């Protein structure tokens, strides 16, 4: 049986993946985020920045080379000749005018309609005594100052914190440890309010007196007076029966005619051509090359995977000086 030859690049990639799988069994990894420092390290341990290569896989899939198509097939309409009665002239109604009838009658009509006029009635007043306010009530205010005491207390100037320091550097690959810095305190003296300032109020009553005033008992008003209407008797011609129309019905007229009648309308039938597919094989990037934090014992830096220098330093962490300086 004939075997396909595996490319060297594929064999190298498989070897690198196996090596990293063996290393991952004895190490702890955390994802790297650009601009952030390493995780907090325990005493005797460091976090090293290492590289993981990209992972590529080969997939086989069905690809559509021609989509499904459809077309419409037109089936013509069907007709037949039929005989039927057709109305030539519709039913009509003819109007004949009948004149109105009148007679003379005596009738009472209004010569002058009812009218109205207005008469003014003056207002009525009387004198009464009323209590008025000469000076309103008011309040007096007196300010009592606030009281303070001097007190001493111990406050925190700088809180307890941790710092990340670089303990090993090889290119862009660095190892870090976490250092604890205790909090700082100082004693201060301050003035504390014991009793707030307040205002005491005293009410002075209002001053009043009696005065004579003219009070309206009944306001002026306008009174409405009616003037009766005037009537007279006259002779008028009155319509006893109004003008009207009498209608006569003329029946409709019909004729027998032949015409084409639609039995089956024109329609379209949809025909389809199935889609065409082909099997293709291609390589897909399953995981891109990436940086990760790997936990190591302090001083053991063997087996660190080196990447191309494209990520730069980590902001906020100082690198150690080069050897020999």
Your description of this structure?
The protein is mainly beta and 325 residues long. Among the domains are: 1-67 and 161-177 and 274-325, no CATH class; 69-91 and 249-272, no CATH class. The protein contains 1 helix and 23 strands. The protein has one helix at residues 8-25; strands at 29-31, 45-52, 55-66, 69-75, 78-89, 92-98, 101-112, 115-121, 124-135, 138-144, 147-158, 161-170, 173-181, 184-195, 198-204, 207-218, 221-227, 230-241, 244-250, 253-264, 267-273, 276-287, 290-297. A hairpin with a 2-residue loop joins β12 (161-170) and β13 (173-181).
Architecture blueprint of SSEs:
Blueprint: H1 8-25, E1 29-31, E2 45-52, E3 55-66, E4 69-75, E5 78-89, E6 92-98, E7 101-112, E8 115-121, E9 124-135, E10 138-144, E11 147-158, E12 161-170, E13 173-181, E14 184-195, E15 198-204, E16 207-218, E17 221-227, E18 230-241, E19 244-250, E20 253-264, E21 267-273, E22 276-287, E23 290-297
Antiparallel strand pairs: 1-23, 2-13, 2-23, 3-22, 4-21, 5-20, 6-19, 7-18, 8-17, 9-16, 10-15, 11-14, 12-13
Radius of gyration: 57 Å
Number of strands: 23
Number of helix segments? 1
Bin the helical content.
under 10%
Global geometry: flat
N- to C-terminal distance? 64 Å
Biggest beta-sheet profile: 5 strands, antiparallel
Q: What's the order of the H and E elements? A: HEEEEEEEEEEEEEEEEEEEEEEE
Which structural class best describes the helix and strand composition?
Answer: mainly beta
Strand numbers in spatial order across the main sheet: 1-23-2-13-12
Unreliable parts: 1-6, 17-25, 308-325
- Provide mean pLDDT, rounded: 78
Portion in strands: over 45%
């Amino acid at each position: 049986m004939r075997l396909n030859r595996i490319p060297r690049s594929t064999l190298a990639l498989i070897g690198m993946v196996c090596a990293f799988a063996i290393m991952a069994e004895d190490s702890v990894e955390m994802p790297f985020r650009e601009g952030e420092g390493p995780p907090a390290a325990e005493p005797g341990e460091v976090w090293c920045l290492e590289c993981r290569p990209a992972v590529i896989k080969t997939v086989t899939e069905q690809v559509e080379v021609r989509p499904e198509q459809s077309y419409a097939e037109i089936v013509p309409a069907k007709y037949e000749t039929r005989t039927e009665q057709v109305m030539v002239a519709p039913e009509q109604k003819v109007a004949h005018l009948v004149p109105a009838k009148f007679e003379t009658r005596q009738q009472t009509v209004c010569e002058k309609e009812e009218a109205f006029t207005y008469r003014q009635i003056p207002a009525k007043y009387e004198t009464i005594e009323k209590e008025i306010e000469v000076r309103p009530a008011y309040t007096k205010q007196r300010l009592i100052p606030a009281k303070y005491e001097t007190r001493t207390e111990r406050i925190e100037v700088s809180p307890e914190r941790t710092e990340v320091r670089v303990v090993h550097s090889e290119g862009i690959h660095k190892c870090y440890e976490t250092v604890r810095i205790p909090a700082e305190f100082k004693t201060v003296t301050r003035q504390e309010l014991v009793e707030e300032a307040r205002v005491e109020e005293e009410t002075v009553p209002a001053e009043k007196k009696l005065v004579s005033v003219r009070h309206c008992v009944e306001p002026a008003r306008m009174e409405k007076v009616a003037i009766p209407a005037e009537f007279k008797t006259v002779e008028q011609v009155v319509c006893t029966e109004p003008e009207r129309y009498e209608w006569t019905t003329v029946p409709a007229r019909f004729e027998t005619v032949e015409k084409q009648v639609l039995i089956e309308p024109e329609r379209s039938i949809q025909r389809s051509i199935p889609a065409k597919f082909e099997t293709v094989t291609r390589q897909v990037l399953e995981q891109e090359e990436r940086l990760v934090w790997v936990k190591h014992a302090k001083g053991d830096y063997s087996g660190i995977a080196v990447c191309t220098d494209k990520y730069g330093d980590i902001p906020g962490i100082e690198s150690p000086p080069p050897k020999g300086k």
